[in-house]
User: Fold this.
Amino acid sequence: MSYMKKVFFVTICTAMLFSSCASEFNAVYKNADTNYRYEYAKECYAIGNYNRAITFLNDLIVPLKGTENGQESLYMLGMAQYKVYDYESASQTFKRYVQSYPKGDYADLASFYIGESLYMSTPEPRLDQSQTVSAIAAFQQYLDLYPDAKLKTKAQSRLFELQDKLVKKELYSAQLYYDLGTYFGNCTSGGNNYEACIITAENALKEYPYTSFRENFAVLVMKSKFELAQQSVESKRLERYQDAEDECYGFINEYPDSKERQAAEKYIKECKQFTKNS
Assistant:
């Protein structure tokens, strides 16, 4: 068989296959038997044809509610949506399941996948983290409701990841303030970028005291206090140099092996030089 004939043969076979599938889909879709359509949806789900399963399940959720297939159909719809990366729809479907069947056969899994769906759609740390906060709340609720669930370890791991994302958001914000330095174009309330950096970093350390980024925040606080002292008006300079010096000593005590220790020692020397002459 020539190459062109082979191509023609494959094209015809493919067209026939699609035509057959379309005919089957239409025939089942128009069938009035709810259970028949549900079994077809289950078959589609089983072979990985999730989009087709979703099409049928969306139409079947209401008529199946209250029947023996009500729970399964709603949970299956959520999983099918999750499988095709439609995480927003999946999270809403799993919430609907939990609300409709709080003690259902899939209640614990649905509760977990509310958080998991939100987790999968969280943005990178520099962007708005509203979705991350929602995901944390969902996983926390899951752990509160099912403290001994099989997916407990995974949920806890997700919580740590999501909290780190919030911490990174704060770290990026603090770093941005520090990098802006003496630029006052964004200080509409008469503030100072170094002060904003200090406040952001210290608040983050209070809220997340065990974060792995603790040293990063401490470095920004130390450097910002020194820069703030250098740029202060005469009446505040002595107090701020003393504060910067104390911050540097505290940093060295907490992080004696830090790569920023040399910078801290340099700041201490400069602070002492000023306070000695004041």
The two ends are 98 Å apart (CA to CA). DSSP finds twelve helices and no strands in the chain.
